[in-house]
Amino acid sequence: MNAASGDLPIREYILPFLDYCEIEKGLSNNTQRNYRQYLQLFVKWLDHSKNSALLPHELTAKHIWDYRLYLARVYKTPAKEYLGKKSQNYYLIALRALLSFLAERDVVTLPSSKVKLARQKSDEVVSFLEVSDVERMLKVPDIATPAGIRDRAIMELFFSSGMRISELASLNADQMSFLKDKNAKRTFELSIIGKGKHVRTIFISPRAAQWLRTYLDTRRDVYKPLFINHRSKDPDNCRLSLRYIQRMISRSAMLAGISKKVTPHTLRHTYATDLLSHGADLRSVQELLGHKNVATTQIYTHVTNKRLRDIHEKFHGGKEMDKE
Quick check: 190 and 175 in contact, CB under 8 A? Predict the structure, then answer.
């Protein structure tokens, strides 16, 4: 069978698509993993709907609609929850990318434009914490233990830098050589490889730098990753997992008495919110977060809008007119 002619079931094109993502598109390992996960659910739906042998040219708009219903009403996460609209769109975007790949390979199939995304609320509120909430979370890890010091350093770095979890977890110990200057009471700069393999600069506050030094002083190994799983004895498999970091952040929030769901991205939102509430402009925050487009950063306008209202109420003389 010739794969280019489209005579293979559509599921058989997923592995070549993932190879294409790595070799030709140069997508990050994290993006490749996400695509694999999202498309595995598409395969599960094909089996569920008795379409396991569906060929690319047989895919119709009706199939896409049925898949969307499956995402919205049938599939449940391991936590037994239905997918929100934002999560549904991740799966649909992955399918779009697969169809675009097929079209590029001259395999006849449904145009990717026929995969419509779930409509989301444009005024979706960003979840963030008050700085006092963050301070309570920072005090949760048991700093009498190496693991507790590590977890405190992770949270300090999150709030100081606004890094994405994938960026933080991929840091290596040798990137922290500048911390040897223990007398420095200044903000440090660090170049990292961010989303889309773009280089950007993050900033590490003196307090976060001190916690990183304290953490590194507990290390008695020569392992490459900055943040390690202390239980692992395998130097090739000791990097702290994203899953552990997510659970640690969630647990710290719960023990700090915070009722809302808190994730690493919540800390990133809090970082951006704190900058804006203290007068930073949107373009600067865009650069600090590593957003490609300022439109992405505009989800934080709820902060600037409130700040403008406060300024108006404080300084605008019109409110006194009704006293005349």
Answer: yes
